[in-house]
Amino acid sequence: MHRMGEEEVTRIERVIDECQEELEPLKSFILPGGGRISAQLHQCRTVCRRAEREILGLSRIENVGEWPLRYVNRLSDLFFVLGRWVGKNLGETEYLWQRGLK
């Protein structure tokens, strides 16, 4: 059985860094969506976040080690960045969250 480790996390972080080089820094929250592929990548991020919460809950009763949580956390970040990157490369508009009126 393959064990997760620093190498897998580092690989994900490299891809995140490469994609972010082509993206504008975020100055606001963005609304997930855009085109179909971008929306699906944002949905993948949502699933990873849910898995992250499940792993955290499991870690309170079982020794799961640090890598599953760390890996899934970085994987969810990768899906977020890929959603933005794909949207940019397909010419999709990135919608920024705006505070509602009081």
Automatic annotation (TrEMBL):
Gene3D superfamilies found in the cross-reference section: Cobalamin adenosyltransferase-like (1.20.1200.10)
Taxon lineage: Eukaryota, Metazoa, Porifera, Demospongiae, Heteroscleromorpha
Name of the protein in question: Cobalamin adenosyltransferase
PANTHER family linked to this entry: CORRINOID ADENOSYLTRANSFERASE, CORRINOID ADENOSYLTRANSFERASE MMAB
Keywords: ATP-binding, Nucleotide-binding, Transferase
Superkingdom of source: Eukaryota
Coiled coil: none
Start and end residues of each Cobalamin adenosyltransferase-like domain: 3-86
Signal peptide residues on this chain, from the entry's feature table: none
Example of a GO MF term: ATP binding
Keyword hit for Iron: no
Family (UniProt): Belongs to the Cob(I)alamin adenosyltransferase family.
